[in-house]
Every structure is written in C-alpha cells, then in structure tokens.
Amino acid sequence: MMLLNLKTFNILYALKLLHPVCVFPNPQGGHTGHLLIMHGHRTDTQRNQTCNWLLTSKTNNRILYHAYDIDVICPDGVSIHDGPTEAAQQKVNNACRDPTNSVFSQSIDTSSGTNLLLKFMSDGGTSSGKGFSLFVISAPSSDCTENTKILAATKKEKVLTSPMFPDKYQKSKTCNWMIMPESKGSLVKLDFKFVDIDYDSSKKTCHDKVEINYGNTTKDVCGSDITKPVKTFTSEAGSNMTLTFITDSIQEENGFVMVYMEVDGMMEPSFMQKYFMIIIIVVVIVAVIIIAVVIVAVVCCCKRKKKSSKNDDVYNPEEVKLSETPTD
Asked: Which keywords annotate this record (predicted)?
C-alpha cells in the first residue's frame, strides 16, 4: 500500500500513474497541482494487478473528492473506501464501463474522516481503457460573518473556504472578508483551487457567487468545472481585496477553496493601466507614421526641385535668339 499525505489545501500534486502499475513517478505540475491522474493502456506484463493507495489528510480535515473521466473497461474497476482499510464503507464500488458505453464521472463526495482508500483492480483480459482521473482536496472550513473580517496576507500561503466546507454551504448567507498585504507596497494574490458554486449555464447567471473587489475592478466567481485551470486574481497597487460570498435561498453546492498570499509589487498591470498603455502605444505608432510621411514628402519635394533646377540649366538652341547686324 502506498501512503499519500494530503496537505491543507494543495493536498496532491499532479501525479501521473501508468495503468495499472502501482508506482507514482515524480510529481508533475508543481505546487499548483491538486490532481491524481491515472491513464495509459495495459500491456501483457501489467495484467492481474491490484493497486491500493491510502490518502490521508495531515491536517485532520475531511477530504472532498471527485472521480471523473472514468474509462476503465469492466471487469477492471476503481473503488474508493471511506476509511484506511477495505473494511470501511465503499463510496465508489468497482466503477467501470461496458465497451459500448461512454466515459463517465462520479458525483462530488466527501469522506467522513481523514482517510480514503483508493483501489484499482485489473484482470487478465485484453480489454482496457485509458484509466481515470481523481480530484482530491482537503481544507478547514472558514468562519462566515456579515461583518467584514480582516485577513492579513503574508508571503506564506493561507487558505480561505466557503462555510461548512467540505459540506455544502448554507442557503441565504452573506460572508465578508477583506484581505490586506502585511507589507507596504505589496499586492494580494488569490488562487481558487476548487469552485462549485450554483450557476445557471443557460442564462449565464450566478445564483450564488464570490464577489471580488479591488481598486476599480469587480469580478464574480461561480460555476463548477474542476478540470479547468485555477482562477487567479491579483490586486492593484495600493488596494486591498474585498470578498463577499453571497448565496440565495434555492440551491446549495460544495463551495470553494482559495489560497491567498502577499506578493511583491510591479505585478501584472491593472485594466486601466493596460488601457493607458495601449493608448500610449497607439499614439506613438501614429506619431511615427506621421513623421515618416512628412520625411518622405520632404525628400520627394527636394528631388523634384533639384530635377527642375537641372532642367532649367540645360542649353536649348531653339530658345537662342540671334540678332541680325545691319549691313551697309
């Protein structure tokens, strides 16, 4: 059995596992990864395998997980137990598909404790799929107050989650936070590692949302697609980050996990800064074009004058008038 220690928020790096060999190569994706990815095709030397991985939260928090893109051909299968042993309740029971069916996904779920046992089994047959992907994340739940709570951003990453995480957040809630850099002149950077917030895709409307305000910028975060890149925001110079989590009275989802930290200034320019930079560039380009046109016009004019002057100096016998001398 292989033990995987899960960090507070980035509990797993992006790991690639050859199907169904039970060895993890070096982590890929760096510090921003939080996916366990298994893929590849079985060969004759990789049959009749049983792989077990124990996922444990080092911070004693429960684990949220999502098995998706499951392309495992029955009777091979993927199972997840809600605990450290196979005696624990099976949350996912031998997930697999018929060769005629499509790749599928499981619903988002959570552990009851701090451990999950992931098990993959393959038989001696010849059929196989591309494997499966498993998203896992663990973080402590954050307090929710309507009065704005001040949070200090430092050089070390800190975590902020929706209330009740990893359980679903409550209806009709409003939570307010203000994140301030610890050092003068520094910026605040936010990275959303997980987002599952009620969203109407047909109307493209956020029913619930995290509203982010910094400087003259307002952004809304909602929706659910853990396979997309992490959403990142960086404050403008001299401004704090204000976050408001707003939920309506209808639908509940699993919320969000976000990490924040202080970063040095001179980061990516704000929208207004980009706007003025574009204006300046356009003005410079137009000025260069005008100067170039003026220079070309002056040169052409000089050439014409020079050519005209040469033509005036050419001897033309027809224009010479001879005076007759009178004879006696």
From this structure: Disulfide bond, Membrane, Repeat, Signal, Transmembrane, Transmembrane helix
